[in-house]
Amino acid sequence: MKAMKWTFYSETLQPLMTKQGSQYGANPAGGIQLIPAFVSFFNKAARFSEAVYRDSRHGLETGRKVRGFYVDNPWGLFQG
Question: What pTM was estimated for this model as a whole?
Answer without folding.
Answer: 0.61
